[in-house]
Amino acid sequence: MFARLREDVACILDRDPAARNTFEVLTTYPGLHAVMAHRLSHRLWCANCKWFARMIANIARLFTGVEIHPGARIGRRLFIDHGMGVVIGETAIIGDDCTLYHGVTLGGTSWERGKRHPTLGNDVVVGAGAKVLGPIEIGAGVRIGSNAVVNKSVKSGETVIGVPGRLVERPTSAEAERRASTAKRIGFDAYGATRDTPDPVAHAVNCMLDHIHLLDKRIEAMAAALERQGITDHFSSLPDLDVREIHSTMDDGEPDPESGPPGPTPDS
Description:
Layout: H1 2-15, H2 22-28, H3 30-46, H4 50-64, E1 67-68, E2 73-74, E3 79-80, E4 87-88, E5 93-94, E6 99-100, E7 105-107, E8 119-120, E9 125-126, E10 131-133, E11 137-138, E12 143-144, E13 149-150, E14 159-161, E15 166-167, H5 173-185, H6 200-228, H7 243-252
Parallel strand pairs: 1-4, 2-5, 3-6, 4-7, 5-8, 6-9, 7-10, 8-11, 9-12, 10-13, 12-14
Antiparallel strand pairs: 14-15
């Protein structure tokens, strides 16, 4: 029992930068208190002392704000950060080294008896306010974003966000390099810091970069065909691309195409 308690305290000190020492963790962390109470209530539940088990779980909920059904099976080193509003159902199974933030629900979607709550593999992190519902399998190492609603099984190592939960699609290294090259050529920031996240703006930019890449390929093929026919001055009249002028146009509004290039201002 004390070995498990030391593990729990050590994992909190490791994962929470606000935790300063063992005494503080033991006395002020409701997530730890909820896990300790659950171990006792689960033993009573398995020993068929179900009423006493439910009473201990209910008292723990009153003091910690964490509701864990005594029938839930929890692995080692579970860290419930902040804790308030966490609900873990009767048939839920949680692996080792998992982390749950406040407002997380591991709930069911059916009134039928039997397995109706999710199973979390090892090293799963569930963000604040997320709901994982139904008898689904969440693989090892999965990351579930804040306020996501997950009702389908997720393979190991994936990241899920949104309502309903959807996987974050990460581009291959070749795709990322190609997009960065295209963006650099046209003088645009390709959202390098966010292209791996489901930001809708970044996604739209990446789609435009992919489209520009395809257009470049087609133009190159057309130019090669023209050159084979002896036409070699087809691009001679194209002006150079001035990125600063484009940015200035975006800031000041669209210029009149009939007015030609901007002239000097009265103050110049």
